[in-house]
Amino acid sequence: FGIASGENFVITTTNRKEITEDNFSEIVQDGITLYLLQSVDQMLLSATKERIDFLPHYDTLVKSGMYEYYASEGQNPLPFALAELIDNSLSATCRNTGIRSIQIKLLFDDSQGKPAVAVIDNGRGMTSKQLNNWAVYRLSKFTRQGDFESDHSGYVRPLPVPRSLNSDISYFGVGGKQAVFFVGQSARMISKPADSQDVHELLLSKEDF
């Protein structure tokens, strides 16, 4: 790796958790992505990629939204799909101490790519593991354990306020991925954890599937 004799270095996960003798056997598994850095908080010099493996047939994602909740109520399905997308932002911002910002943008400028719906918030962000969990079909936010610091969490139990302000508006829905593929052909999730300088990006595309 080009490490000089006597040079200090650390090995970390993509969540910047340092690998040590004590946690090596617990953390280091087949397929895990690791960083070799000079320090835990070192700025990455270039973009990195992390492989995510899951098994459902692509039709499970790209067609399930058509067959489930949206068509079953006899109502206009688009608000339900948008509610699923906004739900992620409500959960992410529900414990903000400052301004809580959620924007919904409809993008139609062909010079910038295909038309898109963008939901943008200033919430706490997701770690690479939480983004991985979001990608896994049927990993419900109500069955994820732990808190934000946990590698297995993406959901914060909402405060006792009206449902329009918490993150339970999609309680009876079928999830953000199905909403995405009901509205369009691909999903791009970009997230930066509040306590990290790393930006994580996930792309799910019908064309790629």
SSE inventory with pairings:
Layout: E1 10-13, H1 24-27, E2 34-37, H2 58-62, H3 64-67, H4 69-72, H5 78-93, E3 102-107, E4 116-121, H6 128-135, H7 176-183, E5 186-191, E6 200-205
Explain the overall architecture:
This is SMHD1 protein. InterPro entries: HATPase_C_sf, SMCHD1. It comes from Podargus strigoides. The chain is of the alpha+beta class and 209 residues long. It has 2 domains: 1-54, no CATH class; 58-147 and 159-205, Heat Shock Protein 90 (2-Layer Sandwich), CATH 3.30.565.10. It has 7 helices and 6 strands. The chain has helices at 24-27, 58-62, 64-67, 69-72, 78-93, 128-135, 176-183; strands at residues 10-13, 34-37, 102-107, 116-121, 186-191, 200-205. The strands form 3 sheets. It has a two-stranded antiparallel ribbon. A two-stranded antiparallel ribbon has the order 3-4. A hairpin with an 8-residue loop joins β3 (102-107) and β4. It is elongated and about 65 Å long. The model is unreliable at 144-155 and 169-174 (pLDDT under 50).
Structure, briefly:
Pfam families: HATPase_c_3. By secondary structure, the chain is α+β, with helices and mostly antiparallel strands. 23% of the residues lie in helices and 15% in strands.
Helices and strands, in order, run as EHEHHHHEEHHEE
Per DSSP, the total helix count is 7
Structural class: alpha+beta
> In angstroms, what is the radius of gyration?
19 Å
Q: Tell me what portion of residues adopts beta-strand conformation.
A: 15-25%
Q: Give the number of DSSP strands.
A: 6
Provide the CATH topology of the largest domain: Heat Shock Protein 90
Largest sheet, strands/sense/barrel = 2 strands, antiparallel
Second rung of CATH, namely the architecture of the largest domain: 2-Layer Sandwich
Q: Report, as a whole number of angstroms, the end-to-end distance.
A: 35 Å
Strand ordering within the main sheet: 1-2
Relevant CATH superfamily of the largest domain: Histidine kinase-like ATPase, C-terminal domain
Query: What do the pLDDT scores average to?
Result: 79
Shape: elongated
Unreliable runs: 144-155, 169-174
- The CATH class of the largest domain: Alpha Beta
What count of structural domains? 2
